[in-house]
Structure formats: structure tokens, C-alpha cells
Amino acid sequence: MGDTPETAANSSSALEKLRQLIQQHDAHPDLALPTERELAERFAVGRREIRRALDVLEEEGRIWRKQGKGTYVGPAAPVQPLALQDLPQQSNLVEVMEARLQLEPGLARLAAIRASKEQIALMQRLQERMNHLSLSDGDEHELWDSAFHRAIAEAAGNRLMLGLFDAVDAVRREPAWQHLRVQARTPARLDNYDDHHHRLVKHIAARQPAEAATAMREHLLALQQALIEAINFGDEEPL
Amino acid sequence: MGDTPETAANSSSALEKLRQLIQQHDAHPDLALPTERELAERFAVGRREIRRALDVLEEEGRIWRKQGKGTYVGPAAPVQPLALQDLPQQSNLVEVMEARLQLEPGLARLAAIRASKEQIALMQRLQERMNHLSLSDGDEHELWDSAFHRAIAEAAGNRLMLGLFDAVDAVRREPAWQHLRVQARTPARLDNYDDHHHRLVKHIAARQPAEAATAMREHLLALQQALIEAINFGDEEPL
């Protein structure tokens, strides 16, 4: 095949660096980007890799090349990825709920296959504890609830996905969102959630991956619905 | 409710910091952890929040408290989350495929609802380009394929999930994995993938979220299967 596995930097990594460069250039759209030769030196990749990555950016409409003049930024700015350490500052609770709905049913599915007996016993203990918490103490609920969901993520046995779970959980944990989460937490809903947690552990312990994923999805959809109502109606009774 | 939304640090954030501290303590299991008072000062949270977080860790079996002696680490070490910037160093291709299967069908589903016409036109152009690449050039394939999948992730309109996508893509991009990916790429499979990509864009353009998610899942399952065969059989024909 045309490329060697030993290449330290390929076109894909050149593309990632160019995306960052374009982002910095956004404030100065009239300035040309460095030449291909300068870019190749700066990123320590070949000129062929630079040209290929520029092809992609041109196709995406994010740069345009002017014969004899150079390469310019625009018209379409890329949606920049969040630097992952900045997630808590730049994301929000609505994005969190969507991301949890994508991640956590899959984690529950994997946990049903991979959880050790010890890990299942831990989930059972955490779930038991949540039954006995005082209704009025939001901080304590968040704490045990987060530990419960993390026990499932850990039992799924994929460190990459545990890393993603923690990144999402860090946004959820932001104190600024807490009053909405408190508002969404009514006694009837908490009873419901206890029931969901109980079913979740039951399916994981019975090694039922599809049922565990469904139980998690239903639980998260209920949480999402409660948050939407808290956002839209505040303390009022929802219609 | 018991907690104020203004609290800068709650029990959940104390728990996260304690998990990191335990990890550092792993090399010295006989040393007691700092006292609750010291921990409260160090993490700038209340002692109540520290005690609660320690309760969780004790329930998880990760610390034990000895009357009058202090708090010790053990016996069960927590599975540490990956520091997200370390993901490419610490994860692997098998974890990547699992994570992609969790993330990307959901991204395709959201893209079918949220993609602008401009974003759909971009997907079509990228997919078109992939049809005309030389079979022998792995680097170029990776480049356009990654741009295509990222266009879908971007069109899903959730910056948190785009951040997760980029984190996973950074692992995939590691040059050390490239020879396996090259090995898995046969002419027949590439034809197949072109077909998958075509169907994906068609469903997104037709605003069919369930079909788009299914098309993405089938595409990723085929990729996963090809990688498993490359891992297990190398250049031989699979049985």
C-alpha cells in the first residue's frame, strides 16, 4: 500500500492542525495562510500531506485559493471541536442529555455482558443506598446517582468510553445547572427513578444486554422530559 | 431544597477529586489519607461534602476507615478515567470501534433532523470525492473518510458530541494503527463502504433519522468486522 505505518504525521493529522489554524485566522480573513512549504515545515509533515488536507478544506468551503496570491480563509468557518478540558465551560445541559442518551444505553448493554459479580454487587449496594436518601437533599442525590451511573460505565470495560462518560458527567456536575436539576426532582419522579435503577441492575445481573440498554434509555428519556418541564414551566405544574 | 445552586463545589466534585487522590495514593497503600478537615481545605469544599464523598468511596470498597487511625486506600482500586488529552496514548482500536458504534449512529440520526441544506451538499461532495480515489493510497482514504464522518458529526448540531467524536477520531488517527486499517481495506470492501456512504447521505437528505442511524450502524459493523479479520488473519484469506 502507498503509505507506511511508521509515518509520524499523516494527512489526517495535518488536516486537524489546519482546522485549528483556520480558527485562529478567523479574526483576520484577509490575511493569506502560510504557503504550503511553510505549513509543511511548521507541522513537520510532507507537502503532499499539506496539499491533500487543503483539498479537503477547499471542498468543505472553508478556504479558497487565489491563483498566484495564496490561500485564504472563508467563507464557511468550521464548527470547532471543544477542547475537551473546556467542555464544562462551553457545553450545556441540553447537549448533556442528548449525549447521555447516545452513550449510556450502550454502556448498560456492555455492562450486562462484562460486569464482574463484584461490580454487580457494587451496583446493587449503590442502588440500595439511593432508596434511603432524604428527599430534600439534592447534593446527596446527585452524588450517589452519579456514582451509580459511573459504576455501570466502569463495568462496561471500555476505558475510552469511560473517559467520554466522565467528560459528559463533568458538564452535568457544573453547579450552575444544579437548581434546574433540583427543580426537576419531585418525590413522584424520584420513586420512578428508583424503580428504573432497580430494573437496570436486575437486567445487568441477569445478563440481558438489550433489556439493560432499553431500561437505561427509558430512564434517561424520563430525566430529559423532567428537565424540559423544569426549563419550560419552572415551579408551575406542567400542563 | 437543601443545597443552593450557587455552591461553587459540591459533593460530586469532591468525589471526583478524591478519586484522583486515591489514584496517586495507590503506590503507598499504608499511608493514611489526609484528615477530613485537611481534605476540605485542600479542595475548598465543606467537611460535610468531604464526608459524603468518602461514604461513596467506602461503599465502593475503595477506602476503609479505621477507628482512631484514619482513612486508608484499598482494597479495590478505581478504574481511572483517561485524562482526555491522553486518550490517543492509552486507548486502542478495539475500544475505538466500540465507541464509534455508540456515538455515530446517534450522530447520523440527529444529522437527519438538523443538517442544513448546505451541510447535506457538503456530505454529497465528500462522498462523491471518495468514489474517485485511487485504491492503493490508504492515507488519502483515511483523510476523506474522516472528513465525511466529521461532516455528519458537525451537522448533528451538538458541540459536546462533536467534541467526543473528535476525541475518538484522534485515537483512530494514531499512525501506529494504520497498517491494520490498510490491511482491512480491500477493493471489495471499499466498494461496499462507498455504497454505505451513499445510503447514509441519501437517508440524511431525505430526513429519515431511523434509517440514517441504521445505515451508520451497519457501516460501522462492517468496518469492525473487517478489522477483526485483519487482526485475526492478517493477509490470509479469512476462513
UniProtKB/TrEMBL annotation, chains A, B:
- Superkingdom assignment: Bacteria
GO MF annotations, alphabetized:
DNA binding; DNA-binding transcription factor activity
InterPro entries registered for this protein in UniProt = GntR_C, TF_FadR/GntR_C, Tscrpt_reg_HTH_GntR, WH-like_DNA-bd_sf, WH_DNA-bd_sf
Which Pfam families does this one have?
FCD, GntR
Keywords from UniProt, A to Z, are:
DNA-binding, Transcription, Transcription regulation
Every HTH gntR-type domain range: 8-76
Coiled-coil regions, chain positions = none
Q: Which SMART domains match?
A: FCD, HTH_GNTR
Q: What is this protein called?
A: GntR family transcriptional regulator
